[in-house]
Amino acid sequence: MLSNRPYLLRAFYQWIVDSNCNPILVVDANNSRAKIPQDYAEGGEIVFNISPTAIRDLKILNDLIEFKASFSGVIHIISAPIKAVLAIYAEENGEGIFFDAEEDGEGDNAVEEMVSLKGIDGTGGVDMGLMEHQAGSGEPATVKSKPILKLVE
User: Fold this and answer.
1) More confident residue, 18 or 115
2) Are residues 76 and 25 part of one domain?
3) Cβ–Cβ contacts within 10 Å for residue 16, how many?
4) What Pfam families is this protein classified in (predicted)?
5) What is the pLDDT of residue 100?
6) What is the extent of the structural domain holding 90?
7) Is the pLDDT of residue 104 over 80?
């Protein structure tokens, strides 16, 4: 299966904007494929306000996030692989999603990572991380636990 990370990024971005909050994007500044202004990186990360009023031309593709941002009056084209995204959250309350750092493996043996999803009660659920499979291995993805759906009243 495809990585679910870009789909989650798009969904959380829309949810944060629709909630009238400022989406904050955290990117791994050490990723060799990330095109970012290194002068603004701290501790191996760079933080961007990606609200519609702060940036222009946001594109969240399945393998890349790209936008234009201004730093000290200079416009930069920011580009980073989806695997370099560490978090997207609302500045106002910290609600969002945080990802584990991933190696940016390329080639035929690259493994597609999926974000681990939990049941709504915080337990069980489908561990999407266990559903990864190696490209070209011919082995089907396996699920170690059954999905749990509970009605919230």
Assistant:
1) 18
2) yes
3) 23
4) SspB (PF04386)
5) 84
6) 5-98
7) no
